Amino acid sequence: MKPIPHFPLSVVIADDHALIRVGMRVLLENMADFRLVAEAEDGEALCRLARTHEPDIVITDLEMPHMDGLAALIELQTLPRPPRVIVLSMHVTAEAIRAATAHGAVAFLSKDALLLELELALREVARGGRYVSASVSDILLKELSHSTSPPLPQDAPDALLSPRQIEVLKLLADGRSVKETAYALGLSPKTVETHRAQILHRLGLRDTAGLVAYAIRHGLRSVE
């Protein structure tokens, strides 16, 4: 993924509903740090415009004609400098969230969210971070509560983990990759992988989804 350059950041938006694009356009026109360079009505146009303009950020729906947003996400990741992608979707499910983030999305919001929340997501993504709206987090937590995963430990983090492991947990729970976490903490990816395995073991959890749920419960996430 390409590094965040100097401001203003170029943005391409994609949605098959003109009114949604108008709302995003007005928001971007009032944000000095961002510059709208193109609009697309479907996934094919989005990929074509992304190749032409090489935007820093893409805001896209998942359900569009000709090529849906998920297929477009996959293609965007093949570009020499993939943009950072914000997904704005009407149909928010745990499966859609997992699929989008697995294919490069760094932020996920419901279309029911206010434009202010999209502004918050844009600013977080512009800093190189990730953003998941509160409603999206709720959907993931509800899925976890109905899954067969083991119950989350009740003990406070400092009773179970070392200070370094808590730092690693915070970054992983915010959606950072192992490499991104290693870079942020000045560690090797192998060391972060070791910490992750130890954290899972000490908390009695199976996967990153469990780590995210634990971090939310104990107020360790910076992304809400």
Automatic annotation (TrEMBL):
Entry-linked Gene3D superfamilies: 3.40.50.2300, Winged helix-like DNA-binding domain superfamily/Winged helix DNA-binding domain
In-chain residues carrying the UniProt-annotated modification 4-aspartylphosphate: 61
UniProt xrefs under SUPFAM superfamilies: C-terminal effector domain of the bipartite response regulators, CheY-like
Domain Response regulatory span(s) in chain numbering: 10-126
Keyword annotations: DNA-binding, Phosphoprotein, Transcription, Transcription regulation
Residue span(s) of domain HTH luxR-type: 154-219
Name of the molecule in the record: Response regulator
Naturally occurring in which organism (per UniProt): Chitinimonas lacunae
